Amino acid sequence: MKEMNANDRSLKIAISSLTFNIAFAIYHIVLGLITISWWLLTLGSYYLILSLVRFVVVHAKAQERFITKFTGWMLIALSLPLVGTVILSVVKDRGYALHMIVMIVMAAYAFTKITLATIKLIKSRRSNSAMLITLRNISFADAFVSIFALQRSMLVSFEGMSETEIIIMNAALGPAVCVIVVLLGIH
C-alpha cells in the first residue's frame, strides 16, 4: 500500500514535470528561432526529447522492462544533442549576457531541480519500482543539464572571467554532464 502511494505521488509529480518540461522546451525553441541561437535550439530539442521520455514512462503501465530499456536508450541518445551544446558553447556560441534577475531565477530553477532529484533518490532508494527509478534518473539528467546551462549563462552574464577561462569552464563541465547522462542511461 505504501509503495502504491509513493507511485501515485511520483506519477503526479512526473506529470507536472512533464508539463513544465514541454513548456520549457517550447520556450527555448521559440527563443532560439527568434534569436537564431543554435544553443537555445539544441537545448530546446533536448528538453523536448526528455519530455517524450517522461511521457512514455508515465503512460507505459506495467511494462517495466520496456520502460527501463526505452529510458536507458533515450538517455544515451540524449547525450548527442548535449554533446552538440557543449561543442557550441566551446567553439561558437559564447552565449548572451542576461539580467541579474533572470540569472537568479535560473539559479533557483537549477538548484530546485537538483534538490528535487536528490529527494527522489532518497525516497526511491529502497524501491524496486522501475517507474520510480526511471523517473529519478530522468530528473537527474534534467537537473545536471540545468546546472550546465546555468553555469554557461553565469559566465557570460557576470564580469570577472576572460574568454579563455569561460571556454575552459564550458569544456570541463559540459563533457562531465554528457558522461553523467550516458551513465544514467546505462544504469
Q: How would you describe the overall organization of this protein?
A:
- The chain has six helices and no strands.
- It is mainly α and 187 residues long.
- The longest helix is centred in the first third of the chain and has 34 residues, at 2-35.
- It is elongated, with a radius of gyration of 17 Å.
Spans of at least 5 consecutive residues whose pLDDT stays below 50 are none
Average pLDDT metric:
78
Q: Roughly what fraction of the amino acids lie in strands?
A: under 5%
Q: What's the shape? A: elongated
SS class: mainly alpha
Order of helices and strands: HHHHHH
Helix content: over 70%
Strand segment tally: 0
Major β-sheet profile: none
- Return Rg in Å: 17 Å
Which tags fit this structure?
mainly alpha; 6 helices; 87% helix; elongated; 187 residues
In brief:
With about 190 residues, the protein is mostly helical.
Give me the secondary-structure topology.
Blueprint: H1 2-35, H2 38-59, H3 64-92, H4 100-124, H5 130-157, H6 163-186
Helix pairs in contact: 1-2, 2-3, 2-5, 3-5, 3-6, 4-5, 5-6
